[in-house]
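Batch manifest line 481
LIGAND: uridine-5'-diphosphate-xylopyranose
JOB: complex structure
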Amino acid sequence: MKVVVVGTGFVGLPHAAVLSEYGHEVYANDIDEARIAAYQTGDRDEIERYVNEPGLAAIIEETMDRYLFFTTDLSQVIEGTDLIFLCLPTPPKRDGSTDLSMYMNAAHGLADLLAQRKQKNRVVLVNKSTVPIGTARLLQQIMTEHGVENFGVASNPEFLAQGNAVDGSRRPDRVVIGADTQADFEILRRVYSQFVNHVRIRYLETTPETAEAIKYMANTLLLTYISFWNGVGARLGETNANIRMEDLKIGVTSDDRISTWGSYVSNGAGGSCFGKDIQSLIYQLNRAGRSTDLLQAVYNINEYQKTYLVDRAVYEAGFNFNHKKVALMGLAFKKRTNDMRDSAALKVVESLLARGVTEIRAYDPLAMHDAQNYWFSPDKNHLFERITYHDTARAALQGSDAVYISTDWEEFRGLATTIANTVQPPYLIMDGRRMLPDYRDLVSRGYEYLPVGGTLLKPPPAGEAASHNGQQSTIAKQATN
Ligand code: UDX
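JOB STATUS: finished
ARTIFACT:
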């Protein structure tokens, strides 16, 4: 089939690439000329500068100029197209609603072009990025107003997680198609023939509005589940030293009905989807006059969680951040990505600066470049000049008074040794990801350890003179036993 994919970001590019693998003739379009030029080089580094997904560059190398073509000019490729996938950014506005300006621009541009088609074959416009409920209907109106003939609209939300976009596109757990007519369902069945009647993949055909709602429900439910662990599990673990978080997790999730995914307590969930989607759903339900208490609570719990450990450092460990240097381990919102959108690290930095730290010594295996761009931009707070950037964890730790672990990078599991070799107690370790399996050893050597979902562990009495607030610790005994 002849397919156009409008928007070649994290969703559009893997989608276009995987469709081309199945032998469709795919035209990937973007208004960003530099981006398209980078893809056209076929060079892995160039491609990954824009979308860094395992396996993606290899597919592009394989199919480019045979099945996959890149273009900035839609007018050249629109004739005879069967499907147009819209994979455009839909960022949040300040009030939580969705900014559809980029989407609308593209929709109007497409409508103009489609109205002038010579071939009048049926073309289906498919919303793939997350858009508010009712957007497919709106798209239909726009096309009709521009006089487009023989077209259909559909909603086909993506459920891709970052770092897994290629595998997720090749083997999704479900394909959800919302459309109005059998003709449109049929065209989508043809483009997704590898998924129809698949033994393991659910292929669901429904209304456009249901498909749009499924995406919002799925993402907010996942965030609700994470927030249950962060808002209840972590709270239990930090109020009673005898509750072991890892055992609690196994015990609870051994029930087939309860998922292990989402049960990892953390300093809050970030990324480009969860925060944006829950705010948008709150906005949509509010506008319809419906209660949003649960969603509002989930949103608040997740945002609060991002800086909660810094607050605990002050109130529980008695740590005074004023004039201190803090090493920050991890900037990305999760491991294996350089994406910092809604990352806990952003909030941690703001909280630390507000508490008077003189330097934040940052390290991330992948996100350093993006971080510098983000914090260097001219309109940003001048306090961000207090952030320094380091090539290794060890370099970032040098001369620091405390460390905050924000991202779950695997390499941080070995951080205990690096800490012991680089900085001396008194020293506070704030672990937002429970990354240090050998924290007991550190505590016995005089370091203070404050993990998310766990009580503050202080050095045993012998090291007490070195501790920050000098209080007698009973927990220290448990830590070293
Ligand atoms: C998510 C959804 O998983 C995906 O289905 C949707 O389409 C887009 O949003 P992604 O943003 O890539 O994907 O990240 P995900 O792996 O789900 O993690 C989101 C955040 O939750 C991260 O900050 C992660 O570290 C955190 N998380 C995840 C936890 O804190 N605990 C967990 O148990 C799991």
